[in-house]
Description:
alpha+beta
Amino acid sequence: MDDKIARSISVLIYQKIGARMRSSNYSSEVRQGFAFWFENYNRSNGPIFSIRPSGLKRHIVSLKFGAYAAPCIEHIRAHATPEAYLLANALVAQLEQNYDVKINGSDITNCVVSLDFRLQVIRSYVNQHDSTHIRKTAELIMIPMIAAIAELIGYEDLTMPVNETIIEGVLSQSLIRKRERNPRNRLLCLSIHGELCDTCGLDPKAIYGSELGSILEVHHIEPLSEAKSPKAYDPKTDLIPLCPNCHRAIHKRKPAFTPIEMKELLEKS
Ligand SMILES: [Zn+2]
Ligand SMILES: [Zn+2]
């Protein structure tokens, strides 16, 4: 394993979820592997994510907090919103569908994160030292894990504070746009719904190849304004992937067309 792989994984993390990470390899140690941490925390002050080989054909991906991460945990306890926990949980739940996820210590699902919190996921049947496999493990497992924690930390908020006032029952356009642009929501949305446009079925990878990364956008289905009691936000059902054309089209009306209306429009034309 070498430094190039770690750097290419850092680039991938930034592309997928907008988080800037630093990395190191453990190559001087017996058990080789890579560690990643947020650029704005140093290694011992925040969460540490790692990928290391285990047994013959496994990668172990884990998250733990550094020895001096107490202020980071305090920050999460004081600032993580219910919506951040919701999204973090949804990302972990999505991992649990495909892998054996071990959570030790406290539990995100109980909205508690503490210094002894550990998350560990094993990916089996890999070629341990093959860079393509390591990258794939990062993409499938470590990136959603980082996304969950980035959400709890309020990652963007650290660089550009957004003041959001949510009037009960009314979902502001800026909140909707914020959710649509949140790269962690995007990751979750694409992993749940797949990488096809929900209304026209466009498969960007089939047209442009997979080199570019996905051009799909996230659309937040607006709750009906006449609904008596607005339902709680659920990223699993409220977000859908749309191609840029359909996304523009769906917002041509205010409030936006519903996905069903869009499909009807497409069928008519
Ligand atoms: Zn489309
Ligand atoms: Zn939209």
